[in-house]
Specification:
Elements: E1 3-5, H1 16-20, E2 26-28, E3 33-35, E4 55-57, H2 67-74, H3 91-94, H4 100-104
Antiparallel strand pairs: 1-4, 2-3
Bound molecules: iron/sulfur cluster (SF4) and FE3-S4 cluster.
């Protein structure tokens, strides 16, 4: 099992998750994070931290569509392990919106740390 970041993270990027991960499993895209399945140790610490409820264990039905995306971009985006200033100013306006992947997904990498 691993944990995955879903489209609920897109344009929210609150970054509370990265602060609690004991193994630096998060990778940063331009407007969302993903979890590297090769690093995640399934500790469940990040899930309750996300204000957008964007993190799920891969065994949940809502996670299935995002497993491949996490795997793919985990190998392309840089490691991020600290909450710096990457959260967009308008993050709350996108919290809970439907259809964010189709409207806003970016394959560009973030800055990482
Ligand atoms: Fe990191 Fe644990 Fe979340 Fe996996 S479940 S990404 S190891 S905090
Ligand atoms: Fe994204 Fe939630 Fe982390 S919005 S950056 S998965 S705290």
């Amino acid at each position: 099992m691993t944990f995955v970041v879903t489209d609920a993270c897109i344009r929210c990027k609150f970054m509370d998750c990265v602060q609690v991960c004991p193994v630096e499993a998060f990778r940063e895209g331009e407007n969302m994070l993903v979890i590297d399945p090769n690093e995640c140790i399934d500790c469940n610490l990040c899930l309750p931290e996300c204000p957008a409820d964007a993190i799920l264990p891969d065994i949940e039905s809502g996670a299935t569509a995002w497993i491949e995306l996490n795997k793919t971009y985990a190998s392309q985006w840089p490691v991020v392990s600290r909450k710096l200033n990457q959260t967009p100013d308008d993050a709350e306006a996108f919290n809970g919106l439907a259809g964010k992947f189709e409207a806003y997904f970016s394959a560009e990498p973030g800055k990482g740390d």
